[in-house]
């Protein structure tokens, strides 16, 4: 009988993978709490801890009874309606909750989108429309920093790192935006290095101010661009530059929002309130795709009074009631629980458990922030080999480039985190062994 994985290879195309189906696949048979039950291509079953939170979204774990119940209640009423000219309670409830949780008290309007990438598209369009409505129609470009990642759709790709990112194969299709140097790393930043960076990005902002609509960055932690942490002071610099030059500040909190870095939003580390903020991933606890764009009243009023009279975007599944209902429940779990202690526990466990990796010659750095742990290697990892080793140690990871990293669910126990860290170090050891073998040959 043809296996599920064989059937998959015949018709499906997986993310960041060839259609030929040469990379290993693992069939998910069940999920609960922080655990997955996987079946490999040879038919063996593996019980593993999900160190990825399914790409950083399942912060409360799988099959959470509160989230299951929220979906079931909404399903009994209606699963979807268009949002043009209609509204419903899950959307209103969610918007009110997001506004209440957001940094400061200026983010008062919510636009619901399909995914993180789409929310970035909306944020960029909103910034351009704002500048046009404010009498500055030539302001069509964006200032950002190297090393960033904001999604795989076209406008989002245009503000990702143009050289080291994943989108350099599309040079003729990407917008020509302005890229400043990456901020200094948080671990070894000094007043001198921060000052030099401030001068460099300040010069760029001054040189291009008349053509810039906004500054966009991932605050404090760059995600898929390298799991790179930088000082909160740099976010404050960006706020000052935006204010000085009449730019909007867009903070992409899709990966960092809802507690992942140790604050509810990464912007809170810097005490900064953006003009526009994107959230996603953990918003629904990993149950359904949903993202949101929050903006200030000033931005919303300017665009609404413009010639266009509207924000020119409207996804078919905008404000899907099932997604809104489970998102509200997910945010309720955060507010009613002790997420800060949970994130602290996970982070402390990762810091302790990953430290032995520094003894490996193949490893250049080990770092943590909030509930994020990273092993950085000298060379790109063999994804298949690293994944296989981690699974054999009871852990699911999805490394990329030269990084083996974890963003576990917040509910992970100290024992869970210890197992995750041990599996990651073992996976890094596999890389070290491979390097030694090649050197011997």
Automatic annotation (TrEMBL):
<dbReference type="GO" id="GO:0009102">
    <property type="term" value="P:biotin biosynthetic process"/>
</dbReference>
<comment type="subunit">
    <text>Homodimer.</text>
</comment>
<comment type="pathway">
    <text>Cofactor biosynthesis; biotin biosynthesis; 7,8-diaminononanoate from 8-amino-7-oxononanoate (SAM route): step 1/1.</text>
</comment>
<comment type="function">
    <text>Catalyzes the transfer of the alpha-amino group from S-adenosyl-L-methionine (SAM) to 7-keto-8-aminopelargonic acid (KAPA) to form 7,8-diaminopelargonic acid (DAPA). It is the only aminotransferase known to utilize SAM as an amino donor.</text>
</comment>
<dbReference type="InterPro" id="IPR005814">
    <property type="entry name" value="Aminotrans_3"/>
</dbReference>
<dbReference type="InterPro" id="IPR015422">
    <property type="entry name" value="PyrdxlP-dep_Trfase_small"/>
</dbReference>
<keyword id="KW-0963">Cytoplasm</keyword>
<feature type="modified residue" description="N6-(pyridoxal phosphate)lysine">
    <location>
        <position position="281"/>
    </location>
</feature>
<comment type="similarity">
    <text>Belongs to the class-III pyridoxal-phosphate-dependent aminotransferase family. BioA subfamily.</text>
</comment>
<keyword id="KW-0808">Transferase</keyword>
<dbReference type="InterPro" id="IPR015424">
    <property type="entry name" value="PyrdxlP-dep_Trfase"/>
</dbReference>
<dbReference type="InterPro" id="IPR015421">
    <property type="entry name" value="PyrdxlP-dep_Trfase_major"/>
</dbReference>
<dbReference type="GO" id="GO:0004015">
    <property type="term" value="F:adenosylmethionine-8-amino-7-oxononanoate transaminase activity"/>
</dbReference>
<feature type="binding site">
    <location>
        <position position="252"/>
    </location>
    <ligand>
        <name>pyridoxal 5'-phosphate</name>
    </ligand>
</feature>
<keyword id="KW-0949">S-adenosyl-L-methionine</keyword>
<feature type="binding site">
    <location>
        <position position="55"/>
    </location>
    <ligand>
        <name>substrate</name>
    </ligand>
</feature>
<feature type="binding site">
    <location>
        <position position="314"/>
    </location>
    <ligand>
        <name>substrate</name>
    </ligand>
</feature>
<dbReference type="GO" id="GO:0005737">
    <property type="term" value="C:cytoplasm"/>
</dbReference>
<feature type="binding site">
    <location>
        <position position="398"/>
    </location>
    <ligand>
        <name>substrate</name>
    </ligand>
</feature>
<feature type="binding site">
    <location>
        <position position="281"/>
    </location>
    <ligand>
        <name>substrate</name>
    </ligand>
</feature>
<dbReference type="Pfam" id="PF00202">
    <property type="entry name" value="Aminotran_3"/>
</dbReference>
<feature type="binding site">
    <location>
        <position position="149"/>
    </location>
    <ligand>
        <name>substrate</name>
    </ligand>
</feature>
<dbReference type="InterPro" id="IPR049704">
    <property type="entry name" value="Aminotrans_3_PPA_site"/>
</dbReference>
<keyword id="KW-0663">Pyridoxal phosphate</keyword>
<feature type="binding site">
    <location>
        <begin position="116"/>
        <end position="117"/>
    </location>
    <ligand>
        <name>pyridoxal 5'-phosphate</name>
    </ligand>
</feature>
<dbReference type="GO" id="GO:0030170">
    <property type="term" value="F:pyridoxal phosphate binding"/>
</dbReference>
<dbReference type="InterPro" id="IPR005815">
    <property type="entry name" value="BioA"/>
</dbReference>
<feature type="site" description="Participates in the substrate recognition with KAPA and in a stacking interaction with the adenine ring of SAM">
    <location>
        <position position="16"/>
    </location>
</feature>
<protein>
    <recommendedName>
        <fullName>Adenosylmethionine-8-amino-7-oxononanoate aminotransferase</fullName>
        <ecNumber>2.6.1.62</ecNumber>
    </recommendedName>
</protein>
<keyword id="KW-0093">Biotin biosynthesis</keyword>
<feature type="binding site">
    <location>
        <begin position="315"/>
        <end position="316"/>
    </location>
    <ligand>
        <name>pyridoxal 5'-phosphate</name>
    </ligand>
</feature>
<keyword id="KW-0032">Aminotransferase</keyword>
